[in-house]
Design brief:
It contains 9 helices and 11 strands. By secondary structure, it is an alpha/beta fold.
């Protein structure tokens, strides 16, 4: 696991105890990657029994699929066979880079709730506010969100939690996006008076944070616990399979993708 390519992963995994901290209701049994050496490495690191030669070999062998790729432009190609086969699928963030592409994926569902897609940070404890905490802020006027790295892959991490916080936002009335070198900023104004500002900071050493401002007060929210958020997202996906229900409304998925697409606009 140390050589997985992402140094933070072994650091948060070493704080857990397995199998006690694993998800009891599900087990990863098959893995595929475009390079079989990588798939074999993943299998050894994560104790996965089967490495398949083609991703569609999993059809008929599994109860659900994790499409753990954040190259959204490839999501339709990889997800379509599983969606058409009626297999529940968790599509990594972002679902798509345009609303048109997202609608194509959602339209392939054989039943409601088959497609699950989100940033795991929608489940982050650090980005939750209780009713009393929200009351102390008053009517929300501004949410400023920052996240490191690039827009296409990382904006979704703050877009989802901020939309969940701003329940009474109404509809978008205006957006504006601009870029400065490798940083991107989007401003979105809503019919209920809320203004949202989302910035991906490129190569800058930026925090992953939300600043929530109302007419009575403000609060800074900082993301810290990757393991808890990722595990919560996987539990939601598994529970959706077991209970055969909808965990994330497709209209919400489309709203998220709409903001991502707006930030990509020239």
């Amino acid at each position: 696991m140390i050589s997985c390519g992402f140094s933070v992963i072994p650091r948060y995994l070493e704080k857990q105890q397995f199998p006690k901290d694993a998800i009891a209701e599900a087990k990863v049994t098959h893995v595929w990657a475009q390079d079989k050496k990588i798939a074999t490495h993943i299998a050894k690191a994560a104790l996965i029994d089967n490495v398949v030669d083609h991703y569609t070999d999993m059809i008929g062998q599994v109860d659900g699929v994790l499409l753990a790729r954040d190259d959204a432009e490839m999501h339709y190609e990889f997800a379509a066979p599983f969606l058409k086969a009626g297999i529940p699928i968790y599509i990594d963030k972002p679902l798509a880079l345009s609303v048109a592409e997202a609608k194509q994926l959602i339209a392939l569902q054989q039943y409601p709730g088959q497609l699950f897609s989100c940033s795991a940070l929608r489940y982050a404890k650090e980005f939750k506010l209780s009713e009393s905490e929200l009351a102390q802020l008053g009517r929300l006027h501004h949410i400023h969100a920052t996240v490191p790295k690039d827009w296409d892959k990382y904006a979704v991490h703050v877009i989802e939690p901020l939309l969940l916080l701003a329940k009474k936002r109404g509809t978008i009335v205006r957006t504006q996006a601009w870029r400065n070198k490798d940083a991107t900023t989007l401003v979105a104004e809503y019919s209920e008076g809320l203004q949202v500002l989302v910035s991906t900071m490129g190569s800058s050493n930026a925090p992953l944070t939300l600043r929530v401002m109302g007419d009575l007060g403000w609060k800074d929210l900082f993301f810290q616990d990757s393991y808890s958020a990722f595990k919560s997202a996987l539990i939601e996906f598994v529970q959706g399979i077991l209970r055969k229900d909808v965990r994330i409304d497709p209209e919400f998925m489309l709203e998220v993708v709409n903001l991502i697409e707006s930030g990509r606009a020239p």
